[in-house]
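Sequence in, structure out. Go.
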Amino acid sequence: MAQGRLIVIEGIDGAGTTTQTRLLVEWLNGSGRPAHATREPSDGPVGRLLREIVRGGHGEVSGATMALLFAADRMDHLAREIEPELARGRHVVSDRYYHSSLAYQSEESERAFVEALNAHARRPDLTFLLEVSARDAAARRARAGRAVERYDGPLLQERIAKNYAALAARLAGRERIVVVPGAAPIEEVQRVLRTEVDTLCG
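Output:
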């Protein structure tokens, strides 16, 4: 049995990563290519703790601690969910992965520290970066009625968006990263993703 492929969808909060993950997995399954949707923070024990912290629980938590927790969740996520699904021959589409740590946690901790924590994480076969302005993403979050979370400050989101763009440029020679205009209609974004995935997965 051929092993599945790991596909990651990245972007700032409100970029549409969750919607595009769901649609891509539905399409893959519908076209006879078994696929599994997942996310980070994961649904494992460390991921659940992270979601509580990001939503304001557990008091003040340092940036270095957050970087450690995200890295720990990622390794648990790989062992508990991603690797077993890939071994079963299913493609895994993850709503966020280590690129999020490099974009987000590097705002709270030293980038070299964050990079070292994630150096041994499995590399994805394909990563999409949905580029959306911080202003447009904030408007989407407001329309969706989302509560304000740890990383939702407008200036912080602008810096994170720039971090993502720099990261995509820096990793371009080492990883397959496709930058997609995330402000386009949902169907157009999905069409780009499907074209790239068809090339990868056949």
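Check: The beta strands are 6-10, 35-39, 91-95, 126-131, 177-181. Residues 8 and 127 are 5 Å apart (CA to CA).
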